[in-house]
Design a protein that fits this description.
Layout (H helix, E strand, L loop, with lengths): L15 H4 L13 E2 L11 H13 L11 H11 L6 E5 L2 H12 L5 E6 L3 H9 L3 E6 L8 H11 L3 E5 L11 H10 L3 E5 L20 E6 L11 E5 L1 H8 L9 H12 L1 H24 L3 E3 L6 E6 L2 H10 L2 E2 L1 E2 L10 E5 L3 H16 L1
Parallel strand pairs: 1-11, 3-4, 3-5, 5-6, 6-7
Antiparallel strand pairs: 2-8, 7-8, 9-10, 10-13, 12-13
Helix pairs in contact: 2-9, 3-9, 4-5, 6-7
Bound molecules: 4'-deoxy-4'-aminopyridoxal-5'-phosphate (PMP).
Length: 362
C-alpha cells in the first residue's frame, strides 16, 4: 500500500505576495450561538420556504443560468430605487465585485485606497490583483479624517477608492459631505460599499447620477441571503459595460438567481426583519453600555463594536459559554481590546449578554 506523500510546493513558482498572505479564516461555529458574521438571524416564514421549494423543484439546473440575469436585475433595480438610467452588475457576493473592480484598474503601480480600520478584503484583494494598497487611518472616534484622506488622494492618485458606508467593523456612517469631497477629489473610481444599507439611515444611491466616478456596491448577505452569495454594483452603463467584460460567465448560478428573485418579490418580509434587527440593536447597545468596563460604539449596521479590558480572554470566555462573536484584538492597532457582536434574535442577544456578564464577573 502506498502512503500519500505531502506535495512539495515550489515556492519560487508563486508570487511572493501570495506566499505572504493568510487565507480568510472562518472559525467553526458548530452548536454555538453564532454572532460572528453579520448574518440575519431570522428564518424565513414557512409560506416563503414553500414558495422557494417550488421554485427550486422547477429549476433547470441541467442548463447554465441566464448569463444576463435579466429578471433578477430588474427586481434589484426596482427594490433598490436606482435613479433612471443607472444599471447593475451582479457578483457572487460583493467580494467578487471588489475583485473584479481591482482587476479592471490594476495597471502596474496602480493604487487601491481605503481607510483603516475597515473591511479587510479591500487590502487582501489589492494584494491579489498586484495593486499597491494605501490605508488612511480613521480619526480616533472612527470618523473619516478628511484632510488626511484628501492628502493621501493627492499624493497617491488612487485608481480605486473603497469607503464602507456604514463602515465595518466600526459600525458608523462617515460624514456624507466628506465622502462627496472624496468623490470630487479622486482621480479614479470611488466605490461606496453599502453592505449594511438595510440598517442605516442614509445611502449614496440617490447621488449616483451626480458623479461620473461614483459607484455603489451592495450585498444581500446581511438581509437574509448570505447563503445565496449575491451582491451588486450600481452605476452608469458606461462603467458597467467595461466592468462586465471581466465578469466570469455564469457567476450567479441558477438557484441563487431564482431564489433571490423570489425573495425580492417579498422584499417587505426582509425589510421587516431588518427593522426588528434595528430594534434589537437599540436594546443590545443599551445593555452593553450598562456594563461597567465596556465601551460600546453606536452602530448603523447589524453589529456592534465594543471595547473591553482583556478582550481576548472575554472572547474565549464567551466561546466556552457557547457564544461565538468576532475578536478584533491583535489586528489593527486602533482595535486593541475590541470585539464585534452581530445583532441576533432577542433570545440570542440575551444569551450573549448573560454570557458576557458572567465572563466579566468571573
Ligand atoms: N463589504 C463589507 C463592508 C462587508 O462587511 C462584507 C462582508 N463582511 C462584504 C462587503 C462582503 O459581503 P458578501 O461577499 O457576502 O456580499
Amino acid at each position: 500500500m502506498s502512503s500519500a506523500r505531502p506535495a512539495v510546493v515550489p515556492e519560487n513558482l508563486l508570487r511572493p505576495e501570495v506566499l505572504g498572505l493568510h487565507a480568510y479564516h472562518v472559525p467553526p461555529a458548530g452548536g454555538m450561538v453564532k454572532l460572528d458574521a453579520m448574518e440575519n438571524p431570522y428564518p424565513l416564514p414557512q409560506v416563503l420556504r414553500e414558495e422557494i421549494a417550488r421554485v427550486v423543484a422547477d429549476a433547470e439546473i441541467n442548463r447554465y443560468p441566464d448569463a444576463a440575469a435579466s429578471q433578477l436585475k430588474a427586481d434589484i433595480r426596482k427594490v433598490s430605487g436606482l435613479p433612471a438610467g443607472m444599471e447593475v452588475l451582479l457578483g457572487n457576493g460583493s467580494d467578487e465585485i471588489i475583485q473584479l473592480l481591482a482587476l479592471a484598474v490594476a495597471k502596474p503601480g496602480a493604487v487601491l485606497l481605503s481607510v483603516e480600520p475597515s473591511f479587510v478584503m479591500y487590502r487582501m484583494i489589492a494584494t491579489f490583483a498586484g495593486m499597491k494598497y494605501v490605508g488612511v487611518p480613521l480619526a480616533a472616534d472612527f470618523s473619516l479624517d478628511l484632510p488626511a484622506t484628501l492628502e493621501a488622494i493627492r499624493r497617491e492618485r488612487p485608481a480605486l477608492v473603497f469607503l464602507a458606508y456604514p463602515n465595518n467593523p466600526t459600525g458608523n456612517l462617515f460624514d456624507a459631505a466628506a465622502i462627496r469631497q472624496v468623490v470630487e477629489a479622486a482621480p479614479g473610481l470611488v466605490v461606496v460599499d453599502e453592505a449594511y444599507y438595510a440598517f442605516a439611515r442614509d445611502s449614496f444611491i440617490p447621488h449616483l447620477a451626480r458623479y461620473d466616478n461614483l459607484l455603489v456596491m451592495r450585498t444581500f448577505s446581511k438581509l437574509g441571503m448570505a447563503g445565496l452569495r449575491l451582491g451588486f454594483l450600481a452605476g452608469s452603463p458606461a462603467w458597467l459595460e467595461q466592468l462586465e467584460k471581466l465578469r466570469l460567465p455564469y457567476n450567479v448560478g441558477v438557484l441563487p438567481q431564482l431564489v433571490a428573485a423570489k425573495l425580492l418579490q417579498h422584499h417587505d418580509v426582509l425589510l421587516a426583519q431588518a427593522e426588528s434587527i434595528k430594534q434589537e440593536r437599540t436594546g443590545l447597545l443599551r445593555a452593553l453600555t450598562r456594563i461597567e468596563g465596556v465601551h460600546a460604539y453606536p452602530s448603523e449596521a447589524n453589529f456592534i463594536l465594543f471595547r473591553v479590558a482583556k478582550a481576548t480572554q472575554v472572547f474565549e470566555g464567551l466561546k466556552r459559554r457557547g457564544v461565538l462573536i468576532k475578536n478584533l484584538n491583535g489586528g489593527h492597532p486602533a482595535l486593541t481590546d475590541c470585539l464585534r457582536v452581530t445583532v441576533g434574535t432577542q433570545q440570542e442577544n440575551e444569551r450573549f449578554m448573560a454570557a458576557l456578564q458572567d465572563t466579566i464577573n468571573q
